[in-house]
Amino acid sequence: MFDYNEIALFIKVVETGSFTEASSQLGIPKGTISRKVAQLEERLGTRLMQRNTRTLNITDAGRELSNRCGSLLSQLEEATSGVRLGHGELAGNIRVAGPSSFVRHVLAQWIPSFMERYPGITFEVITSDTGVDLLEQGADIAFFIGHLPDSSFIARNIGDPAPVMVASPEYLAKNGTPNEPTDLQGHSTLSYGTSAGRASWEFVGPELNQRLDVTPRAASYDLDLLVAAALDGLGIAHVPRFLVSHHLNNGRLLRVLPDYHTSIGDLSMIYPSNRYLPTRVREFIDFAVSKSTEVRRSFRQRDDGKTESDLEQSSVTSAA
Questions:
Q1: Model-level pTM?
Q2: What pLDDT does 233 receive?
Q3: Which residue has the higher pLDDT, 16 or 74?
Q4: pLDDT of residue 311
Q5: Contacts of 108 (CB under 8 A, 6+ apart)
Q6: DSSP helix/strand/coil, 39
């Protein structure tokens, strides 16, 4: 007869990607988990994972067991939570991952509101930009800015962050103001991404579309860090407009190449498509989608505090 605790421990190792992380999250000694997984493999008569001191690889048999049993365990957990708390109440933990800037400026407002609505819900928030990798390691939902790689996960578009290029008045006074995208090659640039070696910026202008390779002085997935670097006069930053609108209003930053539109990729919400989603996770997904209108409005925020739709409405009213 199978010990279902062994299966649950095995699935936790798969979700977290390591025995050490599973041990940390569950509060169970790593040796105990390793022994239980070994006992499960012995009962099944097959190897579920290949492991050594540095790597952990799930076998085909292990992946099949995880996919088949993971959804059943989620349903069991949800059912027992419902019995404890009463019909209609949500309970349990939601693991959410997202870029640090998005967590600070958006999720920091969403999560308290959701927890107030559902007191039985707890959150674990992970700040990172490798959203797909985090889902593979057990996050329920991940937010991602950029061009999504192909994957088996479901992706919901939240909005285009509408990036702009900005620099401090001191930097531009010292180094000059670019008039064309190609002028950026002689400037210090601050780019969204992981590598300071090379970055590709796309420009859509009044007369032409252009892709320009730049060598950033600094590159980071932390957009707030790039804004801070621009404020310190370290270069021209490529960041979402909503993060710098107040700096543009008070003159601490100035727009660079304002006639050109650029992109760093959309903000997306991604979550698994191949396993059962607990009701609490589905409910938070619906909550995030309902909030996406507010996010899109903030992304469209202009330097004067209005949005593009405000201006369109104003033009219609004037014409009438």
A1: 0.66
A2: 97
A3: 16
A4: 34
A5: none
A6: helix
Contacts of 74-81 with CB under 8 Å at 24 or more apart are: 74/275, 74/276, 74/277, 74/278, 75/276, 75/278, 77/278, 78/278, 78/279, 78/280, 81/120
Which distant-in-sequence residues (6+ apart) come within 8 Å of 3 by Cβ? Answer: 36, 39, 40
Count of positions (residues) in the chain: 320
Cβ-count burial of 281 within 10 angstroms (0-12 exposed, 13-18 middle, 19+ buried)?
buried
Task: Report the alpha-carbon distance of residue 111 to residue 18 in Å, rounded.
Answer: 28
**Cα separation of 263 and 227, whole Å?**
16
Percent of the chain with pLDDT over 70: 78
Using alpha carbons, select from 273, 284, 269 the residue that is nearest to residue 67.
273
Query: Which domains can be identified in the chain, with CATH numbers?
Result: 4-85 (1.10.10.10), 92-160+266-299 (3.40.190.10), 163-256 (3.40.190.290)
pLDDT bracket for residue 316 (50, 70, 90): very low
Closest by alpha carbon to 153, among 139, 135, 138? 135
